[in-house]
Amino acid sequence: MKAQIEQTPHDNQKPRILVIEDEPALLRVLSVVLQRAGFEVSIAATGTDGVRLAEEQKYALILSDIDLPDIRGFEVCERIKQHPRLRLVPIILMSGRLVEGNKARALEVGAVDFLNKPFGAETIVSKISAHIRGGKNGNGTA
Asked: Tens digits of per-residue pLDDT, 109-131?
C-alpha cells in the first residue's frame, strides 16, 4: 500500500494527523474515527513512507505503530525527531504486542505517549486532542 493523503473537505482549522500503520483494517478504522472527530488524516503503511510524508507536510501529531514491515516505529520516531522542523511534533507510538519495555523505549526515542492495542475510539481521540493542545498550536507548526 502506498502512502496517501485521505483528506476531509479542506478546512485550515482542522488539525492534520499522520497515521502510520501497516494493518489495512486498523488503518481504515483509525482514519474514519479521526476524521469523524474533526481531524484531517494522512496515512502511510510503512515507516519509510511515514517519514517521507512527515517531511513533506505539516502535522499536528503523528500516530505510528511500532511493528511496521520495513523499519520499526522507534526508528520512525527517532528519524522524525532528528529533523529540525519536526522535532516538536508530538508522536504517539502504539503496539499490539505486550512487550516489557516498549513504553519506556517509546519515551526514550521522543514519543509523547504509548498505547497498547486494542484501544477504544474515545481513548485515541482524547489522547490525540490532549497532546495537540499541549503543543504550540494545532496545525503542526512550531
From this structure: 999 999 999 999 999 999 999 99
